[in-house]
Design a protein that fits this description.
It is built from five helices and four strands. The protein has helices at residues 35-44, 66-69, 89-100, 117-134, 149-154; strands at 9-12, 23-25, 48-50, 75-80. The chain has a four-stranded mixed beta sheet. 25% of the residues are buried. By secondary structure, it is an alpha/beta fold. The chain has one domain (3-154).
């Protein structure tokens, strides 16, 4: 599919099996005119939007969505936040650290004790976002002045 026909790239990153998420982070959503739709949909799902944990580390430019952004397609990554229904913060931090040590490792296997409602909630959230992006009367755009706006406009992507 030619980049000029893609409205939006939503990159969903790994989701730990820790239960029902109560927050979400999405580095770069506010760089696009899709931001208000993202915010409204997150609120409907009961997801508080968290700011990026380390915005100065350049994560936006290292994520999988970046290949789309640099050719002009509005793009951002979506992660479950750090709050899960019914669990204290200490437990969540401990589980995320433990599971994070196995990510993309040989011992990255199914965790039978896990509560896999997080991936289910995030999948429904992603479907809602994708449906709303597809239903817009025009392609999603970068906000005026964003560094990727010129690439979008140069390909007639508006």
């Amino acid at each position: 599919m030619p980049a000029e026909r893609i409205s939006l790239n939503l990159n969903f990153v790994s989701y730990y099996p820790l239960g029902i998420p109560k927050s979400v982070s999405a580095s770069g959503y506010n760089r696009t005119d899709f931001g208000p739709v993202f915010e409204r949909t997150a609120a409907e799902f009961g997801l508080k939007i968290l700011p990026p944990t380390f915005p100065d580390h350049g994560g936006y430019f290292r994520s999988d969505h970046f290949s789309f952004a640099k050719v002009g397609v509005p793009a951002f990554s979506i992660n479950a936040g750090s709050d899960f229904e019914g669990h204290p913060q200490e437990w969540i931090t401990e589980q995320r650290q433990r599971l994070g040590k196995t990510y993309h490792q040989p011992n990255d296997e199914f965790w039978p004790e896990g509560d896999y409602r997080c991936p289910a909630v995030m999948a429904r959230f992603g479907l809602a976002l994708g449906y709303r992006a597809a239903a817009l009367p025009k392609l999603v755009q970068w906000k005026a002045g964003d560094e990727f706006e010129a690439a979008r406009k140069s390909q007639g992507m508006h």
